Amino acid sequence: MSGQRAAAEPYATRFETEVTAIDGRRVRLDTSYFYGESGGQPADRGTIGGIAVDDVRLEDGEHIHVLADDPSFRSGQRVLCSIDWTFRMYCMRAHTASHALYGAGRRVLEDLGYGGFDIGEEKIRVDLETSSEIDDETLLELESLVNRAVWESRPVSWEDAPVANARERDRIAFNEATEDGAFQQGRVRIVTIGGADENGGGSGTRARAPSGGPTVTTSTDGSAEPWDVAACGGTHVRNTREIGPVTVLDRSNPGEGLTRIEFSVGPDAIDRRRVEKAAALTARRTLGVPLSDVGDELARLRDEREAATERARSLERELVETKLEGSEPFERDELEWVTTTVAEMEMDTNDAGELAREAAGEVADVVVIVGGTDTAYAVVATDATSSRSAEAVVAEVTDAFGGGGGGSATLAQAGGFDATPAEITAELEP
User: Fold this and answer.
1) Which residues lie closer than 8 Å to 275 by C-beta, 6 or more apart?
2) In this structure, are residues 183 and 268 in contact, taking their beta carbons and an 8 Å threshold?
3) In CATH, what is the architecture of 5-87?
4) In angstroms, rounded to a whole number, what is the distance separating the alpha carbons of residues 217 and 235?
5) Once rounded to an integer, what is the mean pLDDT over residues 272-280?
6) Where is this region: Disordered (predicted)?
7) Do residues 119 and 41 touch, judged by C-beta distance below 8 A?
8) pLDDT reading at 45 higher than 50
9) Residue 126: exposure state from Cβ atoms within 10 A (0-12, 13-18, ≥19)
10) What is the pTM of this model?
11) DSSP characters for 379-421?
12) Which residues of 51-82 are buried (b: 16+ CB within 10 A; e: fewer)?
């Protein structure tokens, strides 16, 4: 058998076995249904002989149970073991949901590969290798498909197969680097989410746990198109309906060619849906449109805002151009200078620099525009034939008021001054 006993019999949560070795708080058992941390799935929680289990590790293929306190039992003694069913079931649901997500990805993404998986306390993440762009619309499609697979009550089964045979089968997600726990002595554990028309089991064979526990589906006859087939060593539910609600949370790019999708199951998924629904209803009330029209209305308002911003920017530029043209130049260093402030505007240094460059040589030899709402900045432009360097003017300002900046002989800028725009222009004017 490949994989862990817990993966083969995930519904077995109470068992009695013999303690084979004790090393401090590290305990070995003759038989263990505890899941040892592997492949992105955390270790089971529970008790051994009434003492809490802090961790379960796999060392050379053997389960090492790390207790929270020193054991009160001896090697050779039989102990009652209990696995925390709530956490075990959460991991079963989360792990099966990751397969359902991958199955959804098979249907909407190109060149799909499996890049990793991790179960956290509140969310699960799956790393997908794909050339497809996963935008918001794709996220919604993936979430919809996963929850349809849950609603359709598709059977979940697992079987042990020779690795060579598994490699020849089409559509198996096969990654030995991330799923090493599924492989053992030339065999691999294959987990299948079956077709919707199998209605919870189809004609697959079924086996009962040795402890007399619940029946577990171990294979299907392949009579329906499977939703997903993958090499996996984790614990899973017997039917997708046991997963419950799934809510996709977000996406990110942890590395080249990888897209990470985060989702929640159970109460966390329900809570996230409530937050999202509340936001949608608030938007509907605020915008005064049906919920189905909120997206279009927001897009319309965004376009209006962008157009208004562009109009305001254009008006600001026109105002500054007028101020520069109407300014009375003053003479300094045998050159004509013009200074103006735009402190009352939202103009940034890029626009200010462009206006100063256009005015240099037209309205004066040296043009200085000073602005900034929080901290002041100064932009200096000079005529190409001028004997005065724009960078030298900026250096003069930083020497007087601190800050920093730089540029070229014809265009330079600086910021972070310990002064107001009015104080800076006063320093430059005679």
Assistant:
1) none
2) no
3) Beta Barrel (2.40)
4) 13
5) 95
6) 194-225, 406-430
7) yes
8) yes
9) buried
10) 0.74
11) EEEE-TT-SS-HHHHHHHHHHHH--EEEE-SSEEEEE--SS-H
12) bebebbebeeeebbbebeeebeeeeeeebebe
Q: How far apart are CA 250 and CA 264, in angstroms?
A: 10
Flag whether pLDDT at 202 surpasses 70.
no
Domain parsing of the chain, residue ranges: 5-87, 88-283, 316-428
Q: In the 8-state DSSP scheme, what is residue 41?
A: B
Sorting pLDDT into bands at 50, 70 and 90, what band is 142? very high
Of 90, 81, 77, the closest CA to residue 56 belongs to 81
CATH architecture of the region 316-428? Roll (3.10)
| Residues across the chain | 430
167/175 Cα distance (integer angstroms): 11
Are the beta carbons of 12 and 213 closer than 8 angstroms? yes
d(CA 34, CA 31): 9
CA angle 9, 13, 15 (to 5 degrees): 95
Tokens coding 199: 């209605």
Q: Report the alpha-carbon distance of residue 370 to residue 170 in Å, rounded.
A: 67
Domain boundaries 88-283, corresponding CATH code:
3.30.980.10
- Hey, is 227 helix, strand or coil? coil
Q: Which residues, 6+ apart, have CB-to-CB distance to 119 below 8 Å?
A: 40, 41, 42, 91, 94, 95
CB 323 within 8 Å of CB 349: no
Encode pLDDT of 78-127 as tens digits.
999 999 999 999 999 999 999 999 999 999 998 898 888 899 999 999 99
Contact call for residues 268 and 90 (beta carbons, < 8 A):
no
For 42, residues 6+ apart whose C-beta sits below 8 A from its C-beta are 91, 119
- Residue 408 tokens read as 């070229």
Spatial CA neighbour of 125 closest among 268, 272, 261, 265: 261
User: What is the spatial distance between Cα 160 and Cα 256, in angstroms, rounded to a whole number?
Assistant: 33
